[in-house]
């Protein structure tokens, strides 16, 4: 399931700790040695993610020239809006009441979507597993993030997002966007107008702490409503882009391997509690907060899924010359790339001596370590736990799970995307016919 470029980069990189690709317009340094990653991360102000984000604002999201000037001001300073935002997000998305609140909302949505898979007569329901997962996770995630005025409640907004998402890179690179990407541009403008309505309707006031604080921070930097709406499209990319494919791969790995399925189920059954409701009906309940500390097999499966399927390149821009580790000259104006597949498959880092935490790049690292990692891990593990406890899932075609190819994965994707969907039959388990109750973190304290 590795792409051609993965294989080439691993072959070439094997000989050097870092190597240079001289492209016609830019010099690119590929960080091959895992030991060099902390050195790159320490230089986060000058080997920086900020100019990449500032440029994406203009090229991909259509931020105004005035807004772009604000984004590009003082690129190395905490007064820059991009630099200043990440610590705020890391604080509000850390374990605590606001995170619990997001997980709780996501769990409510997921419970309702799974209820729709259960038929009273016990007959199976047929779904396309990727399509279904992508939609349900998008709804759960955006409801949790954007709150009750979530624009994604409108199917046309989800559909515009699906048109825009795979075209992120072509929008970023093309100087002739109306000619090369007319549909993506139209979708982006539709999303921008939906988010303008969201902002004018005071959407952030009832949203997660993530959106509330990010919005307040950006307002304090003087951006217009039109630019603020475009940042919400950027937030959509950060929050939806990876969660749905991760949830799908985790479902795929758990259900396609009877040993893993058996072990995960046994671990979860152990955590479930039985009770009788006032009418004497049996109810089974699972406290979702236990999944973080007591579901080590499922947690390991998530981590391994991320290790094997994430493909993000983590691109940085050199704002100044820098001599990395006193040895390797990084020239101003060059790009630095820390490719996940390279580090996630390094035998040096993942060999027999046990794994190296620096080599796990699925959530990035250093200053730009993903602030959404606690939320997405809690949401995805809850989603898979609910499915595994309530349903059996089997492919319709020949009853066999066949590993999908991923050759058509868009270049900007953070995870491999299956080329073909898999049609499956979902059947409520014998013991799933009783009531399941999933208790969310922090429930009762709201
Ligand atoms: C499985 C799910 C996710 C994965 C694998 C993931 C991965 C990443 C990675 C690798 C980065 C660093 C990018 C870089 O340094 O180049 C990042 C940044 C970030 N992530 Fe996540 N993420 C996930 C889910 C989320 C969620 C659910 C949220 C918010 C609710 C979120 C919010 C962010 C933000 C705000 C950043 C900072 C930069 C940006 O806007 O892209 N992420 N994420």
UniProtKB/TrEMBL annotation:
Q: Which InterPro entries does the annotation name?
A: CYP450_monoxygenase_sec-met, Cyt_P450, Cyt_P450_CS, Cyt_P450_E_grp-IV, Cyt_P450_sf
- What SUPFAM superfamilies does the record tag this protein with? Cytochrome P450
Listed transmembrane segments: none
Which residues does heme bind? Answer: 370
Keyword annotations for this protein, in alphabetical order, are: Heme, Iron, Metal-binding, Monooxygenase, Oxidoreductase
Domain of life, source organism = Eukaryota
Give any GO molecular function from the UniProt entry.
Answer: monooxygenase activity
What protein is this chain from?
Answer: Cytochrome P450
